[in-house]
Design brief:
55% of the residues lie in helices and 30% in strands. It is α+β, with helices and mostly antiparallel strands. The mean pLDDT is 87. Keywords: Signal.
């Protein structure tokens, strides 16, 4: 596959995934995004308070001993393949604990809970509007 075709497919993949779902589901997803984000953040903050620490991730580059393939042609044009040990870099994601300030985290929780309550009525209205605009047949 030519390089440009592969790049085109990679670039259009998110559009294809976004096109999945019924019109009603897409409408509801679009209009409740903020409510879902606030709910996710609130769940994360409550987990931090319950544990007493937060989780963060970082990417670490490490070396790995592996087999490297070396292809050579001799003067007669014959192909010779040899494998030799070599070091290759790879990226690993590791999680680590981060201390939290419980008072600040509690304020954050309270703010997110208030924001979620404010968005709940709005999200409910959007869901109802989407259901009316795009009715689906009951199975």
């Amino acid at each position: 596959m030519p390089r440009n075709s592969a790049l085109f497919l990679i670039a259009t993949l998110p559009l294809l995934v976004a096109a999945c779902g019924t019109p009603q589901e897409r409408c509801i997803s679009k209009h409740t995004r903020e409510y879902r984000n606030v709910s996710r953040l609130l769940t994360e903050v409550e987990g931090n308070l319950q544990r007493g620490y937060a989780w963060e991730e970082r990417q670490v580059v490490r070396d790995r001993l592996t087999q490297c393939r070396d292809v050579r042609r001799d003067k007669d044009g014959n192909v010779h393949v040899t494998y030799t040990p070599c070091w290759r870099d790879y990226v690993d994601t590791e999680r680590y604990r981060v201390p939290i300030d419980p008072a600040a985290e509690a304020r954050k929780r309270d703010g997110l809970a208030e924001r979620k309550a404010g968005l709940a009525a709005q999200a409910e209205a959007y869901v109802e509007a989407c259901r009316k605009a795009f009715p689906e047949a009951e199975a």
